[in-house]
Amino acid sequence: MSIIGSPNVGKSTLLNQLLKQRLSIVCKKPQTTRNRILGIYNGSGCQILFFDTPGFHQGTKALDRFLTEQALSACANVDLILVLVESCGERSRLPEPLLTVVAQSGIPALLAINKIDLVERPRLLPLMESHAHSFPFRDIVPVSALKGEGLDALVKAMVRLLPEGPPLYPDDMISDLPERFFAGELIREQVLKNVHGEIPYGTTVYIESFKERDDGLVAIEAAIIVERESHKKIVVGHGGQMIRRIGEAARGQLERFLGAPVFLKTFVRVEKNWTRSRGKLDEFGFHEG
Ligand SMILES: Nc1nc2c(ncn2[C@@H]2O[C@H](COP(=O)(O)OP(=O)(O)OP(=O)(O)O)[C@@H](O)[C@H]2O)c(=O)[nH]1
Ligand SMILES: [Mg+2]
Asked: Fewer C-beta neighbours within 10 Å, C or N terminus of the chain?
């Protein structure tokens, strides 16, 4: 099943809580997730395959179009769609263009209202009622992905709505994506956290090499790719201060994720306007599917 919704509503936080692992990177800034990411949930007697997706928004650059395609492709070939909204403010509204796609797909949809830790309970009921009138959701579940509230009820609702079948993956597997993909994501997460303004949106991380040595150490070389020389200066920082901070924080996260000591070498490379080029997206691993 797929988790879809506007940017920043907490899709990746929800996936991580369900899986009890930091699989998909999370940031307080929107447009964090860039790929459709499979997470495999193994509960008692059930396996649920989740796709985390980029927040749905309508930009025009090649990268924006890629993100939208990833979100939309998640509305096909699944048994259930989980739409996520927030419990107050602008993002508590249903994302209309996405709902149109869901309606056309004919796939059953479930709504989760997230971030209920931020609102008073009496406010939720009118919101749930209004959303129930707007779209034929099979169920509506209030949750707090951050605090882990309501997740049992959410999983129950999903199990009820999903068809039965044999498990598709071994029960110790958590994703089908390679470790080097997650390595790039963990480094990009640190760029998002440490570099402010627009720069992280024009940044990607390309893993040039990923080697597990015989002594157990994992040696990773990563290029942080930016759009302009002026961005490179900021990501490198005064006397290399920023890139060192990003590298150190990322190395800690990588060691936790891989469960092994990591030697990480990072450098910054300029690729002019790569976010506008379909060819460059392909080169950096933004593949359809
Ligand atoms: N208070 C509160 N914050 C939350 C909750 N769930 C997520 N957040 C925060 O919301 C922000 C965005 O979370 P993400 O999980 O990155 O959101 P997303 O929908 O995956 O965002 P994109 O990948 O950019 O589309 C982060 O700062 C989270 O900590 C929640 O239940 N309560
Ligand atoms: Mg996300």
From this structure: C
